[in-house]
Specification:
Elements lengths: L8 H24 L6 H14 L3 E2 L12 E4 L2 E3 L13 E10 L2 E10 L5 H18 L8 H14 L3 E2 L5 E3 L6 E5 L15 E4 L2 E3 L5 E3 L6 E3 L5 E3 L2 E6 L2 E4 L4
Antiparallel strand pairs: 1-4, 2-4, 3-12, 4-5, 6-10, 7-8, 7-9, 9-14, 10-13, 11-12, 14-15
Helix pairs in contact: 1-2, 3-4
């Protein structure tokens, strides 16, 4: 049986606060996210800002992960490790940020377009965000995880994009990853949503094949065909009649 945690009002309040700090951090990142900066420099900026604001970067040291944020560029799907790579005009950059405030986590990802990119890449980024909103529209007490998954998958396929299946959304709270899984494709997950559940919904969509592989660093996941991938994620609270996005603008 799944161990799904229903959050108390106090826990929800802490997650709201974590969500606010998460969005503040994205606003800080956006000031520096320009051609010429290294992903390592961005990681340092994130680390310092998160700590200064009374939070902890959840990924730092998680299962040995060496950085405070995941930065994945172009054909990197997720879990790109910041390093000497220089961001350049024409890149798309996914910034996956998990922070913890007083022990409660907020997880969000934004994919940024740097300078000029082809129309199909711009569409990929926009439609990955669109797929998130198609999925979250299904969220309310009594709905099923499957409803979210099917909506995301349909939206992706309707827009000519493929859905990564090796990675899924997840419950979140006092742990960064909790039950249940929240897939972006229909795997017939009939888990019922209840008010007070908090989940991370995170479409990861590819311009080409859905197939991916793991780099030798044991973290970075890339598309098999080298085509771009985009990622959009928010932490979402299930309510009686709908949802609240805790990492919203």
């Amino acid at each position: 049986l799944l161990m799904i945690s229903i959050k108390s009002e106090r826990e929800i309040e802490l997650m709201r606060e974590a969500g606010k700090k998460n969005i503040m951090t994205f606003k800080e990142i956006e000031k520096y996210l320009k051609p010429g900066i290294t992903t390592k420099k961005l990681d340092t900026i994130v680390h310092d800002f998160v700590v200064k604001n009374g939070c902890v970067p959840s990924t730092l040291g998680y299962e040995g992960y060496p950085a405070s944020v995941c930065i994945s560029v172009n054909d990197e799907v997720v879990h790109g490790i910041p390093g000497n790579r220089v961001i350049k005009d024409g890149d798309i950059v996914s910034v996956d940020l998990v922070i913890s405030y007083k022990g409660y986590h907020a997880d969000a990802t934004r994919t940024y377009i740097i300078g000029d990119v082809p129309d199909d890449v711009r569409d990929l980024v926009e439609n990955t965000k669109g797929a998130f909103y198609a999925g979250v529209a299904c969220v309310k007490e009594g709905a099923r995880i499957r409803d979210i998954s099917r909506a995301i998958e349909k939206y992706a396929h309707d827009h000519g994009l493929s859905v990564v299946e090796e990675l899924v959304g997840h419950g979140i709270g006092a742990s960064m990853h909790e039950e249940p899984d929240v897939p972006n494709f229909d795997d017939n997950n009939m888990t019922k949503l209840k008010a007070g559940m908090t989940i991370a919904i995170e479409p990861m969509l590819n311009l080409g094949s859905k197939k991916v592989y793991l780099e030798d660093d044991d973290w970075t996941v890339r598309t098999i065909d080298g085509k771009p991938s985009a990622h959009y994620e928010n932490t979402v609270l299930v309510t009686k009649d709908g949802y609240e996005i805790l990492t919203g603008e």
